[in-house]
Automatic annotation (TrEMBL):
Its EC number is 2.1.1.348. The lineage of its organism: Eukaryota, Fungi, Fungi incertae sedis, Chytridiomycota, Chytridiomycota incertae sedis. PROSITE patterns: MT_A70, N6_MTASE. It comes from Piromyces finnis. This is mRNA m(6)A methyltransferase. It catalyses: an adenosine in mRNA + S-adenosyl-L-methionine = an N(6)-methyladenosine in mRNA + S-adenosyl-L-homocysteine + H(+). It is an enzyme of class 2 (transferase). One of its GO terms (biological process) is methylation.
């Protein structure tokens, strides 16, 4: 299946054969119906956090719609998972809110993953920041209930070194890390884009 890409570096994008893309607005999506069909072992989300009013991007255009905290907080994540892990990408001024969301949804913070961004020449890729130049992003890891069946601990490192690609595009290594932690699991990504589609993952977003 050929899909025209919007913000990907190449003109055409071939969706993985075994991915499950669901194009929908996450705000009014029928989450109860999905929860009744499947309970997920891993949930990954990269919320379109609303940036601070002092515009830390310093003139860099943001190519996606930002979402106020209350809309993210209202997502019924607790219905989608009884046992398993949640992975939440977070920006600097949203750490406290992300921890609050984890607690509200029934998770305990257990770890974090750091992505050190690199250029194609394997140099550190520095970006704009308010006080310091930013060269990393952080993904918080929460756990709910028991370990999923087949869960394997201490397989992957908590640091990813990989090349920075398109705006808001996260590294493939995180998906591999999740799949190593929970082999043959049931995986869900929320706020996904076309470049996030992956075999055996359910991906939900309004930009698919």
């Amino acid at each position: 299946m050929m899909i025209v890409a919007n913000e990907i570096d190449y003109e055409e994008f071939t969706a993985p054969e075994w991915c499950i893309p669901i194009k929908a607005n996450v705000i009014d999506f029928e989450w109860d119906k999905l929860a009744s069909e499947c309970q997920f072992d891993a949930i990954l989300m990269d919320p379109p956090w609303q940036l601070a009013t002092h515009a830390p991007t310093r003139g860099v255009a943001i190519a996606y719609q930002q979402l106020p905290d209350q809309f993210i907080e209202e997502l019924p994540i607790e219905k989608l998972q009884k046992n398993g892990f949640i992975f939440i990408w977070v920006i600097n001024n949203k750490y406290v809110k992300a921890f609050e969301l984890m607690k509200k949804w029934g998770y305990t913070f257990v770890d974090d993953i750091t992505w050190v961004k690199q250029t194609v020449n394997r140099r550190m890729a520095k970006g704009h920041g308010y006080y310091l130049q930013h060269a990393k992003e952080t993904c918080l890891v929460g756990k709910k209930g028991e370990d999923p069946v087949g869960c394997k601990h201490s397989i992957s490192s908590d640091v990813i070194y990989s090349v920075r690609r398109g705006q808001s595009q996260k590294p493939e290594e995180l998906y591999e890390m999740i799949e190593e932690l929970i082999p043959n699991g049931k995986y869900l990504e929320i706020f996904g884009r076309k470049n996030n589609l992956r075999d055996y993952w359910v991906t939900i977003g309004n930009e698919l």
